[in-house]
Amino acid sequence: MTTKERAKLITERLDSEYTTELTCYLNHDNAWQLLIATILSAQCTDARVNIVTAELFKKYATLEALAAADIKELEEDIRTTGFFHNKARNIKACAGELIERHGGEVPSDIESLTALSGVGRKTANVIQSVVFNKAAMAVDTHVFRVSHRIGLVPKSCTTPLAVEKQLMKHIPEEIVPKAHHWLILHGRYVCIARKPKCEECGLNGICAESRKTKVQ
Fold first, then answer.
1. Residue 212 has pLDDT above 90, yes or no
2. Which residues contact 170 (CB under 8 A, 6 or more apart)?
3. pTM, rounded to two decimals
4. Catalytic residues, which ones?
């Protein structure tokens, strides 16, 4: 079985497994809030970010307010998300850049997004996928782990970018935004890091086969 054939089977199974509405776990009311929340989510759980942003977006209701924030005060506001010195500096700068370069709008192209302070490829892909419904695969820890375990990517794919390219190669563009959510959900609730629930997994047969078959 080729990787493309396996990808077709896997995405069909995941589609049937996760039939509820697919939504982003980071709470937000608009594109810039999602961008800031995603920056904050680095090395932090979505649940913790949602607790922090519930107050953060009340206090800084506009990009202008965030860009004008006192840096020390902002650090305290986001302290519990970790790496708060860098994150505070980046989100304050990012807010200003959105105003100055893009008229307060979040851009949709990867080049403009990754040129913003604190925005790497994963964050940019989240925005492209969630906000603009583009075929962009954000590779977080769940996507990275699950795609290796079920045989969608070979062991030689050791970086998020390598995994992203492999997944984009084998998953049809039109379902990439949904496939991204499927892989995250599967990683959160079934193919968990320490003790995957293989007996409950709808991919059990396919996954077992992928471990025996060389990824092409």
1. no
2. 3, 4, 7, 152
3. 0.86
4. 122, 140
